[in-house]
Design goal:
With 117 residues, the chain is of the alpha+beta class. The chain has a single domain, classed as 2-Layer Sandwich (Alpha-Beta Plaits), CATH 3.30.70. It has three helices and six strands. A four-stranded antiparallel sheet has the order 4-5-3-6, with helices on one face. A two-stranded antiparallel ribbon has the order 1-2. A hairpin with a 3-residue loop joins strand 4 and strand 5. The protein is elongated and about 50 Å long. The two termini are 23 Å apart.
Length: 117
């Protein structure tokens, strides 16, 4: 599913922008299990089809997720992270309502990004 980093060729530029983003679940609750991981992966596949965002790697721990992302210079890192976090949260809450209950009906993600490199 996830591919190697390649140059992105546009009409007037060639780029290879890579971002490592680490996002934690709200209150650092343990919410990532096999079911949530599958939803996360399938949502990221859909994001790749719709946006110029490529997921080179996704790694989950019990309470946070690591993304290695490649994108184009026209997308700010804020737009990339906001897109990923909002679409993943919506799909997880839709397909796993027990996660929403575990997080007291609130947000899926914590307010802060743990790391961007």
């Amino acid at each position: 599913m996830f591919q190697d980093s390649k140059y992105i060729h546009k009409s007037h530029n060639v780029s290879v922008l890579l971002y490592q983003v680490v996002c934690a679940a709200k209150y650092r609750h343990i919410v990532f299990n096999n079911e949530v991981d599958k939803i996360l992966s399938s949502t990221c596949e859909q994001i790749e089809l719709r946006y110029e965002i490529k997921f080179l790697e996704i790694g989950t721990d019990a309470d946070h997720v690591h993304f290695l992302i490649q994108s184009v210079p026209t997308y700010s890192i804020t737009k990339i992270v906001r897109t990923i976090k909002s679409l993943v949260a919506r799909e997880v809450f839709k397909e796993c309502p027990e996660v929403k209950k575990q997080l007291w009906g609130g947000d899926f993600w914590g307010k802060h990004i743990l790391s961007i490199r």
